[in-house]
Write a structure and sequence with these properties.
Helix content is 16%, strand content 36%. The chain has five helices and 17 strands. By secondary structure, the protein is of the alpha+beta class. Strand 12 and strand 13 form a beta hairpin. The chain is elongated, with a radius of gyration of 24 Å.
C-alpha cells in the first residue's frame, strides 16, 4: 500500500469508530474500502456513517454493511475527459483510481481537479494529486472597493479573470511593467481610459492594454454592474505589479 493512501483506506471489517477517526483526520469526508491485495471494494463517506447512526448502528459495529459497494471507479489509463465527465455528477466528490486488477493506485477529489484546471497543470491519472494546493480554489474571489474579481485560470504565463464593477465603481488609474491585458466587456456600459484617450464600451467591446500603458475602467451606469473578462499575458502576473497614479478610494 502506497503510504499516501494509509489515511484514506480502511478494511471492510474495520469498526465504524476507526473509519470515522480516519475521515476526521484526513478532512476529506471519505475513506476507500480495501480488500485483499489492496483491491477496492467500495467507499465510505461521512454521510454513510451519519445515515448508519440514524438507523441505530453503533460505533463498535463493522463497516461491512454500511459502505457503498457500487462506487464509481476510474482506471489508471482513463483520460482526463473521463474525470471531468464523472465529476459532472454533483453527488461525486472523489474518485478512486485502480489498475486492471482493481488495485488502488490513486485518488482524485473534485477540488483537486479544479486546482489542476485553474493552474493549467498537465497531468494523467498517475499524478500525485495530494501534492496540489487546493486553497487556490478557496481564495480565487477577491473583494475590492469597486466590486470583486474572480480568477478563472492562473499559471506561470497567463491569468484569466472575471472583473465585476459595481454601479458607479471605478478602478484606479494604473499601469503594469510585466504584463499586457486584454479586456472583453460581457455586461454593462462604461468608460476605459488608455493614457490620454477615453473609450466608451458596451457588451462585446474589446480593449487591448499594452505594458506600461496607464489605464482605468469606470462603470458609468447607475444601476447595472459592469462585467469584463480579462486575460493577462506576461513574465510576471503578481498583484504587486500595479503602479497606481490616481484612485477614488485613496489607495495611491
Amino acid at each position: 500500500m502506497d503510504n499516501r493512501f494509509i489515511g484514506f483506506t480502511v478494511n471492510e471489517h474495520d469498526k465504524i469508530a476507526d473509519a470515522l477517526k480516519k475521515i476526521d483526520a484526513n478532512r476529506q469526508g471519505f475513506v476507500i474500502v480495501i480488500g485483499n491485495e489492496d483491491k477496492v471494494l467500495g467507499v465510505l463517506t461521512d454521510g454513510d456513517i451519519r445515515r448508519a447512526f440514524i438507523r441505530g448502528c453503533m460505533n463498535e459495529e463493522s463497516i461491512s454493511n454500511i459502505y457503498t459497494k457500487n462506487a464509481r471507479l476510474l482506471l489508471v489509463n482513463d483520460g482526463f475527459e473521463t474525470v471531468t465527465e464523472s465529476f459532472k455528477n454533483q453527488a461525486i466528490k472523489f474518485l478512486p483510481i485502480v489498475d486492471e486488477d482493481g488495485k488502488l493506485t490513486n485518488i482524485i477529489t473534485k477540488n483537486q481537479m479544479h486546482a489542476l484546471l485553474l493552474q493549467d497543470i498537465h497531468a494523467d491519472l498517475t499524478y500525485n494529486f495530494q501534492s496540489l494546493d487546493t486553497s487556490v480554489i478557496d481564495h480565487e474571489i477577491f473583494q475590492r472597493p469597486w466590486g470583486f474579481y474572480k480568477t478563472t485560470v492562473l499559471n506561470d504565463y497567463y491569468q484569466g479573470k472575471i472583473i465585476s464593477v459595481k454601479p458607479g465603481g471605478q478602478l484606479s488609474l494604473q499601469s503594469h511593467n510585466h504584463r499586457e491585458e486584454h479586456w472583453i466587456v460581457v455586461h454593462g456600459t462604461g468608460i476605459v481610459q488608455l493614457d490620454n484617450s477615453f473609450i466608451a464600451v458596451t457588451c462585446g467591446s474589446s480593449v487591448f492594454i499594452p505594458k506600461g500603458c496607464r489605464h482605468r475602467l469606470t462603470n458609468t451606469d447607475e444601476k447595472e454592474t459592469l462585467i469584463i473578462t480579462e486575460v493577462q499575458i506576461g513574465d510576471y502576473l503578481g498583484e504587486d505589479d500595479i503602479i497606481r497614479y490616481e484612485d477614488i478610494y485613496g489607495r495611491v
